[in-house]
Each structure stands twice: as structure tokens, then as C-alpha cells.
Amino acid sequence: MLDEKLNFSTKLIHSSVKTNKPCIAVRAPLYDTTTFSFSDTQSFENAALNGDTPFYSRYGNNPNILATEEKLSVLDGTEDALLFSAGMAALSALFITYGKNGILCIGNVYGGTQFLLAHQLNSLGIQTNFIPYDQADYLDLFIAKNPGLIFFESPANPTLDILNIQDITRLAHENGSLVAMDNTFASAINQQPIGLGVDLCMQSATKYLGGHSDLTAGVITGKKSLLDAIRPWRTNLGQICSPATAHLLDRSLATLPLRINCHNENAMTIAKWLEHHPKITKVYYPGLPSFSGFETASRQMKGFGGMISIDIKGNEKDAIQFINCLKLITRAASLGGIESLVSQPARTSHRNLTPEERNQKGISDTLIRLSIGLENVHDIINDLAQALGQV
Ligand SMILES: *Cc1c(COP(=O)(O)O)cnc(C)c1O
Known about the structure:
By secondary structure, the protein is α/β, with parallel strands linked by helices. It folds into 2 domains: 8-253, 3-Layer(aba) Sandwich (Aspartate Aminotransferase, domain 2), CATH 3.40.640; 256-388, Aspartate Aminotransferase, domain 1 (Alpha-Beta Complex). It has helices spanning 8-13, 17-20, 41-49, 63-76, 87-98, 111-120, 139-143, 165-174, 187-190, 224-236, 243-253, 256-275, 294-300, 316-325, 355-360, 377-388, and strands spanning 80-84, 103-106, 128-131, 149-153, 178-182, 200-204, 218-222, 280-284, 307-312, 330-331, 341-343, 367-371. Strand 4 (149-153), helix 8 and strand 5 form a beta-alpha-beta unit. The termini are far apart. Pyridoxal-5'-phosphate is lined by residues 86-88, 110, 112-113, 153, 157, 182, 184-185, 204, 206-207, 216, 218. Pyridoxal-5'-phosphate (PLP) binds at residues 86-88, 110, 112-113, 153, 157, 182, 184-185, 204, 206-207, 216, 218.
């Protein structure tokens, strides 16, 4: 209880006992605080030495951050998890910690990751070699050059290419390389890279984990000893997410399995429908037997996810016309939310590449990427049908 004799300006500053008294709320409270108080110097000092005691939010020991990290490590079946302010924060800390002996990047990766590896990290002495997806069969030759870290996505953005996670991991480990993977497209529900041998698993929590297009965050899971080397970079580069973001993400994780099941079912139904449409020349979806990665995907994925790419018949104008005619499916960057989104990689995420570079990555001018949401599947199909009808 605050001393009655204090002035009101002082009383307005100090927390009410009512909000600080321990009680058990059904929905865990938000600890919207940068710092935590101690009854005496000894407990203050003890907390400073023990990383898991709530002490200072930037250090990552805010209760909302710790609780959400615990759920994320349970989800991936790992010892520990590190939460970040964005997927790119997670990746940059990962590469700075483990990229010193060279990075080998296999296949297509997210545009921001590509730029970071190809144009930014070399100024810090971190060098990356890139192998195109269609040369992944010669991986042993590249791995023999002793890269410290192997990095890839599967399914990869935006062509949904599938890489064999166990094969890559076995080769890398025989050579003493560490393996890190971006699992954003599949999400932890559909694919468990750590169980397949990967050392460090990253996800942009902005996408499926958050799932409602209302938060930006990232996560890395893996063995505690591996994460402990990344943690000081997160601390001193100031890459922690806010307690409010962690709290919102914790809320989202509750419905993650239900949401992913619905994304999987909707996308499978839509991919099958698109495959038979006369105005579509190719459907990129790991769950279609006609897709090149189907067999590997069936072995390493439990569900095929909500991302579909299509090649539309005709030229770039037809692709633009189709996208502009969509009424329900929203033209926007990002993916993995409850609402269906559409983008044209050659015009948006990959517009900075030369036509030759796009061609090498299999990104044509008529390629269209769909993030299938949780709307009623017939409403999504009706929207696709009416827009295709106007091409
Ligand atoms: C969005 C995305 C990222 C980057 O995540 P942010 O949260 O936007 O920083 C990295 N990898 C993939 C595959 C993504 O889709």
C-alpha cells in the first residue's frame, strides 16, 4: 500500500498494489515494463547474474517473452527458443554468430535474406556462396569446400522448391558444417526441421505463427548451447521484440494448429481446382503429385501449407489483369495471415533482379503467388474464377 502522506504526483507514478499483487488471471497479463524491482541489493545482484530472472526487458527476461519462448520451443521440440523483433533480426543475428567460416546458401530464399547475404554481410567479412536449386545434386562438391554454415528454405519462396532436409543435413554434418533452415513457409505444424537433423530453425513469426497480420517478430529454436552464442548479439544489437508483441504472439499460438489445418485444406482444394483450369499453365504446390517436389515433401512434411504459386497463360499483361480483377483476395506483401493475399514476384519481391537472374530462379513474368487464408474455400475459388474469366 502506498503511504497516504505522499503527494498525488508521486502516487500517480508508483504502481498500485492492486495491479502488482500476484493473482492468477486466465489470460496471462502483459508485463508492459522495461525493468523489474528488487527488495534489496542482494536479490538485485542475484537477478543480474541469473539470466532467467525478470530483470531488464531488452535482455529477453521479461515474463511475456520468456513464456512465449517456452511455447515456441515446445512447438519445435527443442531445448530453447530465442524471440526477435523480426524474422530478419533473427536471421542477421544467426549469420553474424555462425557465418564467420563462410555460408553456403542453397536454392531460392526470401528477398531480404538474399540481399543481406549477397550485399550486406560481406562488408563484415561474412562471405556467402549461392547454389541454384537445380544444382543441389552436386551439393557434396560445394560442401567439401568447408562452409561453416549451410542455409536454405524448403518450401522456398516463391517457387515452392523442395529440398531434401535429411540428405543435406547428413552431408553437412559429415563435413562438420552447421545447418540452419528458414521454416517460415511450412510453419512448425507442417514441418519439424530439428527432428530431421537441422541444428537451428528460424521462422518469421510475422507470418503463420502470428497469423493475423498484426505483429512483426522472428524466432530461432535449437539446442540451448547453440542459442546461447546468438543471445548476446540479440541483446547488444537491441533485437528483442516488445513484451506486447510477445503477448500477442502467445495469443496467436493457441490457435496455430487449427489455423494451419484450415490453411492446408483450403490450399489443397484450391491447388487441385487451379490445376484443371484452362488459363493456368502450371501450379506450384508441394501437395500435388504433378509437382516436382511432391515425393520429398510427402516424406518430410505433415501438411503442405497455404502457399501456392501459379503460372498464368499469356503474358505479363494477362497476369496483371488477373491480379487487378481479384475482389476478395487482397493485393499485398506478406503471407500466412487469416486473409488471402496475392502478389506478383517479378513486380514486387524480386523486381530488383535482372530478367536473367529471375529466369535462373524460375520466376517468370506470369508467376503469381497466393497466400491462401481462412475464408470459406468456395468464396476464394469464386473470386479466382471470376478474375480468370476476365483475362
Ligand atoms: C517474411 C519472411 C522473412 C522475414 O521476416 P520478417 O518478419 O518480415 O523480418 C524471412 N523468410 C521468409 C521465408 C519470409 O517469408
